[in-house]
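The pair is set out directly below:
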Amino acid sequence: MDFADEAPKLLMLLYGLIAFVVVVGGLLLLLDVVPTWFARRREAALLAASTAAAGPATTAATVRARRRRSVVNRREGGFGFFFLLPALLLLAVGLVVPAIRTVVLSFKDGNSENWVGLRNYTWMFAQDEIFRVLINTLTWVIVVPLAATAIGLVYAVLVDRSRFEAVAKALIFMPMAISFVGASIIWRFVYAYRSAEYDQIGLLNHIWVLLGGEPQQWLQNPPLNTFLLIVIMVWIQAGFATVVLSAAIKAIPADVVEAARLDGVNSWQMFWRITLPSIRPAMVVVIVAISIATLKVFDIVRTTTNGNYDTGVIANEMYNQAFRFGQTGQGSALAVFLFVLVIPLVIYQIRNLRKQREV
């Protein structure tokens, strides 16, 4: 290695490290030292105002104390806005502006030049292939939350206070640490197909051949292939459901459980009459959260089938229309439709969380 030839690259690396240290150090200074300085000034101002108000009860002293409090409150409001401003700018640039632009593009043609009104929205329900995409999305939203929550609940109940609870939870939660693309690649190997004269490398086909069947191209056989893709999502989300529901089960008051046991209830009655009603709010949170994630599913379909063989969903079709086929208006209409579907779930989730906090 010739250091003379690599000197410019090493110098650039050094500049990058220095810039990183300066930026990170500046942020730490801004987020630590500056707030502390403002907090001390605020405490001093409030102390001075309180001292002035606690002195002789004169009108002038009271007015000065109120003015000082007003100044402190204005400074504090400006200080808070100063720290919120970067987040607000990022939110506007990354979410609000693109959302408005997408809505506008959904009323234009594929080249985003001419206004076409609601034609892109009527197109979604007039085309058989797009209608199949909507049906597939509905199937995902119905099956995935219910199946993942049910599996997570059963697992949480079975491993609750067991000897190897931590290990069992870690194993089922592990898929959550894998990206959707990584999980999809893993399951593509599970569904892999080879002709009958070769040994099967796919786990599902290997088991199927051992049982006496012929190798199947699982991902090309509708509507079974849609449910096989749903299995991937359930496999990922079941760990999330298990962790949340397990925490809810542990939060059930011990005296309630003890009273039920003294009344002579068996395990089945304990589950239906005590456990299930007590964790209902947590189940609602899990179902809504998984439903929102399922509505936006893209990676799994894109990695495994790319929406072919009647496996398309809204997010994948939106990508295909906008970026593969050049139909920006139709892709934007699908994006807006997906956004409209997600909004009620988000509102319901927010209202549900507020009710839980009030209780």
Residues 3-105 form one domain. The CA atoms of residues 220 and 283 lie 34 Å apart.
